[in-house]
Structure to design on (957 residues):
């Protein structure tokens, strides 16, 4: 039987299975191979909070969505072209994401009586046998059986054999989408280099999956997605948290300050700790503290000692750090506070994404406590914004928030990474040693930007005391003077507002410089807004997209930009936070589009709202 | 980091800041401040290398009065800030000043973790068994039945035994002193500073406003000799106005013996490095109104040498540099797989 190859511009695949099925690994491998091939891509891992939720249940379904193409890709896709399911629960949880006519590849072993019951299918119903999936192209493969067959002489136990079945699926998909096996073979060889029999088994199963596609008569069509026409240069694939970690290391190298990272494990921020702890040869010191408060306390100590100090958490941990953030602000020491946002309030939705901590970052402290805020718009942008947060902290002697969220933290995209020479360095302004005859050191004396000097212990003549009590201007001594307090509150605010002179102006990402509608986004909604506005612009609509990365203070031209459009739309994965701030600061009747479901916007949702607003 | 400048030897005066000391007149804190300012010049540390870090409470005003580097931080967290500072600047001499509320109540968690990590810092725990700054509520070391503003019918909280708590957290240097015995305090502060690791000194400190006389039984000339026992390494445990009483161990059970009936050779010989015996000594903690109670020990309960967190952390950095070479930014930004378009 002859096989045909269909050329297509873009494909969205969703891998789904039990959280123990190796879905995330399969997805990541497929992404890396696809990125190396030269497609543009965007991914969205979606996993349950439980490490091993009960096997076969809907609660235990783990998913990994990837969209790749020969055209520009901005989101992981609204609907899928193909759904790969390892069991009945994975099918049931995800079938509504598959477009009509889409491909289902199902592991038949995952549709036995037990799995069907666990997935809560009615007694006697089996979707892969009863014709209920007829509007899709259904392919069933007994992956479990074939994997067993393939390794029957390997001497491995049933459990170990079962663990390699994701490689069969991966091999099959490499055949279906005309990909090479090389990247994954190399990965397997690296990962299991200490256990050659595991390397051999995994490669064997991977190849078996590929050959199955080639020889099985069930499959007549394979797909080819040509390389994307991306800006020329050298690329790598990067995840948001990894990019954030590298951004912090880059800031350390470029400022000459050793990096100290204090944190307490929390989803979805822990990967930054894991990544940084591997880079001790850069002088990076990581400290896994006993709790969130100790984590920020230690970073304040490290900052006092002259390190580039960073702490990270997610919303619940940031809430615990609140008092200490206020202390860092009073001390006027540099500190980067990373918040990888997740669904809240309280423990909320730990593994799902949300942008609901903007107001917490902006206002969530006692007293008048302004803290600058920057936010990343995509996985690769986490590098730039983590770097910017560090730069602003050191140049302005202040704690700075860097906001990311679960979506971009775990998502990946191709990154045209910078050459280190292109990264602009920055430098700390340390106070110099003094002799006994020099005038007394004044710890709260400021430069023209209202920034005080960084006075390190160990420097002769700089002995001084800092603390959380209100300070007298210039001397830093305790002061309860009413006018001094007001003066200091205003001074600390003005110091932060002065940062506006040290950040780029707001740019229009796409669309006309003025017109009917401006879609104003921040954070991880970038891809969805980009895709929606692009479509609207191509339809000839007067719509533009601007994405704010500096949220406090805002770029100096933002207010004036908002006035050039009749309407402003602010899509956010929260109940309306940036929109409140925009209305408050600029008195424009901005309108919100809010999604609070723990999952990102689809481009279609935003496009629909754009169309509605233009109709009025 | 610092340039070398010629500085004359330090005096106690050099350590006094220009700020007025604002503790209540008669507070035990004055005496502790004075002894610290007296003892530091003898320790051979450069003034610019000294950092005092405190939390919140009466004792935590301490750094403002020391002409050194200092940070008056937030309630209970001085230990965390000191940990971070010591991790990145191991060469500094870091002192934590804290109280029974700051260290044992709001900051209890951080204290035990600092002790197990064994950062090389000196912790001065001013224990006055009361909340002074908030004007007189009971503290985690107040005795059961204590009548205070927040416990008009008497406290029903069982108090902490700070020494036992710290030994339980595997502290490597645990000692007790008192505000009204300057010589003893200077001796203990010197020893605590010599110890390379977390040294905890509990200092019985009188709050003459809210809890006056809590420790008089141990500090007053009239009762001190009978109620307090001063431990010295390698020496028998002897106390009493006539030095006529001693402690003898009957198995694991300590008992008071009269030296007229018992030879000194049979007494408990204090060994600062004996963890089991330190545990028993920490339990010399009975109500001093109880008849036949054991005397309250002062001095060094326990000390041991153990690796410091900051040393190990810096060794890992050195080892990583040796193994992987000095970090190359270009190479980690590139990663392992790249492609060109």
């Amino acid at each position: 039987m002859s096989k045909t190859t269909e050329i297509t511009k873009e494909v969205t695949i969703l891998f789904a299975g039990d959280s123990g099925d190796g879905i995330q690994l399969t997805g990541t491998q497929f992404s890396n191979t696809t990125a190396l091939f030269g497609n543009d891509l965007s991914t969205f891992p979606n996993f349950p909070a439980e490490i091993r939720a009960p096997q076969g249940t809907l609660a235990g379904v783990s998913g990994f969505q990837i969209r790749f193409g020969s055209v520009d890709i901005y989101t992981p896709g609204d609907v899928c072209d193909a759904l790969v399911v390892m069991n009945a629960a994975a099918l049931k949880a995800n079938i509504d994401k598959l477009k009509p006519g889409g491909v289902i590849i199902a592991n038949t072993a995952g549709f036995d009586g037990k799995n069907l019951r666990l997935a809560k299918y009615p007694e006697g119903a089996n979707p892969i046998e009863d014709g209920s999936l007829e509007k899709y192209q259904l392919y069933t493969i007994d992956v479990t059986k074939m994997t067993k067959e393939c390794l029957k002489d390997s001497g491995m136990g049933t459990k170990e054999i079962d663990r390699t079945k994701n490689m069969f699926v991966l091999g099959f998909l490499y055949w279906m989408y005309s990909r090479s096996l090389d990247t994954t073979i190399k990965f397997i060889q690296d990962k299991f280099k200490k256990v050659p029999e595991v390397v051999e088994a995994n490669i064997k199963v991977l190849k078996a999956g590929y050959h199955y596609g080639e020889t099985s008569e069930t499959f007549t069509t394979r797909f080819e997605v040509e390389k994307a026409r991306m800006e020329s240069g050298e690329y790598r694939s990067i995840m948001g948290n990894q990019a954030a970690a590298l951004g912090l290391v880059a800031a350390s190298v470029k400022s000459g300050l050793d990096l100290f990272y204090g944190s307490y494990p929390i989803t979805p921020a822990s990967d930054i700790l894991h990544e940084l702890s591997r880079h001790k040869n850069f002088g990076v010191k990581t400290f896994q503290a006993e709790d969130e408060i100790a984590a920020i306390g230690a970073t304040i100590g490290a900052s006092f000692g002259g390190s580039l100090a960073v702490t990270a958490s997610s919303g619940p941990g940031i809430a615990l750090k609140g008092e200490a953030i206020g202390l860092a602000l009073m001390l006027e020491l540099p500190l980067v506070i990373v918040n990888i946002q997740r669904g809240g309030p309280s423990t909320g939705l730990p593994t799902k994404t949300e942008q609901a901590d903007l107001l917490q970052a902006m206002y969530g402290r006692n007293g008048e406590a302004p803290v600058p805020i920057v936010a990343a718009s995509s996985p690769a942008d986490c590098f730039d914004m983590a770097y910017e947060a560090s730069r602003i902290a050191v140049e302005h002697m202040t704690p700075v928030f860097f906001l990311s969220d679960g979506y971009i933290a775990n998502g990946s995209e191709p990154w045209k990474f910078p050459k280190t020479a292109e990264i602009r360095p920055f430098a700390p302004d340390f106070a110099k040693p003094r002799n006994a005859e020099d005038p007394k050191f004044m710890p709260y004396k400021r430069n023209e930007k209202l920034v005080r000097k960084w006075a390190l212990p160990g420097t002769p003549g700089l002995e001084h005391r800092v603390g959380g009590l209100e300070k007298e201007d210039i001397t830093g001594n305790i002061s309860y003077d009413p006018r001094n307090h007001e003066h200091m509150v205003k001074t600390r605010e003005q110091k932060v507002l002065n940062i506006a002179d040290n950040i780029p102006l707001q740019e229009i990402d796409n669309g006309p410089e003025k017109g009917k509608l401006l879609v104003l986004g921040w954070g991880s909604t970038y891809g969805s807004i980009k895709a929606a506005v692009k479509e609207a612009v191509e339809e000839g609509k007067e719509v533009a997209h601007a994405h704010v990365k500096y949220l406090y203070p805002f770029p100096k031209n933002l207010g004036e930009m908002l006035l050039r459009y009749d309407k402003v739309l602010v899509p956010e994965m929260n109940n309306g936070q940036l929109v409140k701030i925009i209305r408050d600061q600029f008195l424009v009747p901005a309108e919100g589009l809010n999604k609070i479901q723990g999952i990102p916007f689809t481009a279609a949702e935003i496009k629909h709202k754009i169309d509605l607003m233009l109709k009025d | 980091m610092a340039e070398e400048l010629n500085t004359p030897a330090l005096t106690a005066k050099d350590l006094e800041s220009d700020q007025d000391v604002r503790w209540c007149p008669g507070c035990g804190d004055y005496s502790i401040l004075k002894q610290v300012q007296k003892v530091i010049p003898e320790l051979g540390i450069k003034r610019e290398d000294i950092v005092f870090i405190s939390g919140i409470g009466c004792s935590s005003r301490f750094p403002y009065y020391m002409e050194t580097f200092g940070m008056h931080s937030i309630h209970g967290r001085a230990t965390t800030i000191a940990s971070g500072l010591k991790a990145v600047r191991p060469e500094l001499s870091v002192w934590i000043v804290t109280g029974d509320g700051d260290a044992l109540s709001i900051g209890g968690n951080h204290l035990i973790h600092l002790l197990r990590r064994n950062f090389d810092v000196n912790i001065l725990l001013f224990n006055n068994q009361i909340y002074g700054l908030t004007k007189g509520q009971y503290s985690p070391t107040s005795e059961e039945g204590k009548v205070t503003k927040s416990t008009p019918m008497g406290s029903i909280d069982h108090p902490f035994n700070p020494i036992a708590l710290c030994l339980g957290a595997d502290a490597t240097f645990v000692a007790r002193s008192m505000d009204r015995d300057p010589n003893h305090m200077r001796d203990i502060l010197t020893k605590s500073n010599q110890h390379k690791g977390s040294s905890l000194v509990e200092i019985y400190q009188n709050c003459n406003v809210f809890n006056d006389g809590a420790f008089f039984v141990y500090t007053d000339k009239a009762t001190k000799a009978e109620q307090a026992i001063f431990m010295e390494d390698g020496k028998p445990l002897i106390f009493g106005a006539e030095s006529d009483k001693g402690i003898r161990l009957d198995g694991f059970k300590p008992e008071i013996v009269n030296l007229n009936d018992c030879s000194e050779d049979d007494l408990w010989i204090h060994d600062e490095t004996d963890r089991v015996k330190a545990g028993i000594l920490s339990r010399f903690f009975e109500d001093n109104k109880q008849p036949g109670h054991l005397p309250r020990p002062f001095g060094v309960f326990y000390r041991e040498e153990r690796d410091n967190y900051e040393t190990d952390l810096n060794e890992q950095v050195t080892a990583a540099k040796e193994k992987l070479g000095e970090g190359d930014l270009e190479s980690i930004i590139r990663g392992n797989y790249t492609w060109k378009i």
Chain A has a mean pLDDT of 95. The two ends of chain A are 57 Å apart (CA to CA).
